[in-house]
Amino acid sequence: MDPILDKARAGQNWLEKIANMIPGFSGYRDKELRRDADALQREHLAKLLEQCKRPLNDAAAALSRTDLDAINDVETAKKRLDKAIARIRHADRGYAGFFDAVKVDEAMLERVYQFDLGLIENVDAIRARAGALTDRQSLVALIAAIDAVGAQLDERDALLSGTK
């Protein structure tokens, strides 16, 4: 079902496996594993986006020789990329902890994880566009792809806050 969650379950030590046999604890532990898997997935996506900075720097060097106005677009892309990376890295975890004041039910949790899976596609689109920077048009397309991730993160935040 969820390869990252399955990997987290497989990595449990013998004490954790015994604790999972306690009635009620297994569900709590599964939620904590999902929370950890969510954080690992988001960190992975943030690192993938970090790799897009190099092509932006290369594009800045190349475009500065032919189109000085494109430098503003490169800087815009860098700033928005940094913002998206920070938002992904520091986004609220889908599941509230055992003692947290705000609880997230299972149905909403599943929606958040489906949402996060959609982030993978958008991150891949950003990476593809960053790898194909040749002119100002490609920079504008990259900025639009980064903005799409920002909008998706806005929707995720609204979902978790209950405003969506």
Structural description of this entry:
- With 164 residues, this protein is mostly helical.
- The chain has one domain.
- Helix content is 77%, strand content 0%.
- The protein contains seven helices and no strands.
- It has helices spanning 3-10, 14-19, 25-50, 53-66, 70-89, 106-131, 136-161.
- Helix 3 (25-50) packs parallel to helix 6 (106-131).
- The longest helix is centred in the N-terminal third of the chain and has 26 residues, at 25-50.
- The two termini are 26 Å apart.
- The mean pLDDT is 79.
Overall mean pLDDT: 79
How many E strands?
A: 0
The ordered string of helix (H) and strand (E) elements is HHHHHHH
User: Helix content range of the residues, please?
Assistant: over 70%
Individual helix count: 7
Q: Please state the structural category.
A: mainly alpha
Overall, the morphology is: elongated
Rg is: 19 Å
Uncertain runs are: none
Major beta sheet summary: none
Number of domains: 1
Q: Assess the beta-strand content as a share of residues.
A: under 5%
**Separation, N- and C-terminal Cα atoms:** 26 Å
